[in-house]
Amino acid sequence: MARESGAYEGASRRQPVREPAARTYARALPVVPVRARGLTIEGADGRRYLDCVSGGGTLALGHNHPVVLEAIRAVLDSGAPLHVMDLTTPVEDAFVTELLRTLPPELAGHARVRFCPTGTDPVASAVSLVRAATGRSRVITVADEPFPDGPFPRDGEAGQEPPAVLLLEPVRSEAGVFPAADALVRHLRARTAEQAVPLVVDETGTGVGRTGAYWAFEHSGVTPDVLIIAKAIGGSLPLAAVVHHEDLGEPGDSDGAGAAGRPASPPAGEPGASGTGAFRGNQLALAAGAATLAHVREHRLAEHAAALGGRMLTRLRALAAEFACLGDVRGRGLMAGIELTAPDGTPGTPGTAARLAAAVRRECLRRGLIVDVTGPGANVVRLLPPLIVTEEQMSAVLDRLADAVRAVDRHRPDGTAAIRAGHGPR
Fold first, then answer.
1. Closest-CA residue to 286 (of 226, 243, 229, 238)
2. Rounded CA gap, 406 and 403, in Å?
3. Beta bridge pairs of residue 178
4. Residue 28: Cβ within 10 Å count
5. Cβ contact 326:404 at 8 Å
6. SS3 labels along 254-318
7. How many CA atoms lie within 13 A of 304 on its CB side?
8. SS3 420
9. pLDDT tens digits, the chain, 426 residues: what are they?
10. CB 210, CB 216: distance < 8 Å
11. Beta-bridge partner residues of 35
């Protein structure tokens, strides 16, 4: 352990010099992980932490789950190529078969799968796909417009063309964990169908059981035309894809989208539209992803996320009722956000709520709990425990979070008096 402790100190000194200032997690969470299993990370300094960031939702099964490791080892031991661009392989075929098994029949029966580089590329690929299919260019996201009918021509209204695509995140996680109401999603599906506007659902952070359904769009009972998937589908390794109805093939496709969803060249002016990139469809990620998809399905982990997540939100709301510095609690399944507010419950001085959120995160880390801070105001503490979290582990997570909030309430970073909800200054 002395050697690892020295490595910790050396790595911590070297990283700021070698890497850019955009290392947001490294600055806020000064941990050098050396071992990890399930919910637990062990740092080079010997401390153990409960990880409720889960790689931003990438680790559906937590760290180093046995089924994921077994799948990766099987590929490594088989002698199969690790990188083949997008040639058909048994590993790819197994992943696509398992993926289609998780989708509703009305999509799975007519689906094409396009692998993409990770990051923002699957979103760009999906948008380019529907622009080519519709011949229109306007992209509307649910956060952009007043709803229910903002982006659509009203009955009898002339001169306004429908958009090319309506892009929906079932939970706007990075914006502060805002779930879309099921009634709104159903309304938007009806309106897009009326106007022949493809509905694209971005499940990058919500898919594979995270929200208490295998795919978050299932809560509302709708089926999208296009599904963007990433993060958890790779079983902890980089993988992203666009799943779309076969009718939305791009020009140049031999049969709409190709037997395995492999398009030809992207339309002019749409670089990367077809999901080009040397590292799409990584074989180890496909193997890890297929194992993860199957494990979540077979062990009904979406149902587990719904039940345990409901209890998590109930306890977080009780905590918010106790402290005035805690505002709205939002979430679905094992995705929750708790908003920090100014001391008197109003927006207050700019940055006050963000400083409180940062203080809560810091106090959580001191207690061996890793949480995230998100939202445009950096004032929402986010919890993303893996789907394999147990009742006992969840209790430990919430106990540590509550203790951290109490510590911040006693010693406010802005120097204001601590306030209990409904009780005034103590």
1. 238
2. 5
3. 172
4. 17
5. no
6. CCCCCCCCCCCCCCCCCCCCCCCCCCCCCHHHHHHHHHHHHHHHHCCHHHHHHHHHHHHHHHHHH
7. 18
8. strand
9. 445 555 555 665 666 655 554 445 556 677 888 999 999 999 988 999 999 999 999 999 999 999 999 999 999 999 998 888 777 899 999 999 999 999 999 999 999 999 987 666 899 999 999 999 999 999 999 875 555 555 565 554 555 788 999 999 999 999 999 999 999 999 999 999 999 999 999 999 999 999 999 999 999 999 999 999 999 999 999 999 999 999 997 544 433 333 333 333 333 334 334 445 666 778 999 999 999 999 999 999 999 999 999 999 999 999 999 998 999 999 999 999 999 997 654 554 556 899 999 999 999 999 999 999 999 999 999 999 999 999 999 999 999 999 999 999 887 654 444 445 544 333
10. yes
11. 42
Q: The tokens of 379 are what? A: 């004032």
Two structure tokens written together for 273? 């539209």
| Residue 51 zone, left/alpha/beta (φ > 0; ψ -120 to 50; rest) | beta
pTM of the model: 0.84
Strand-pair partners of 316: none
- On whether the CB atoms of residues 304 and 391 are closer than 8 A, the answer is no
* Cis previous bond, 151, omega within 30: no
Q: How many CB atoms lie within 10 A of CB 419?
A: 18
Tell me the C-alpha distance between 47 and 36, whole Å.
12
**Residues in the chain, total:** 426
Contacts 24+ apart (CB under 8 A), 73-81: 74/287, 75/283, 75/284, 75/287, 76/284, 80/283, 81/283
CA dihedral 330, 178, 343, 312 (to 10 degrees): 20
**Which two structure tokens, joined as six digits, stand for 377?**
């105001």
Using N-to-C axis directions, what is the helix angle for 283-298 and 66-78, rounded to 10°? Answer: 140
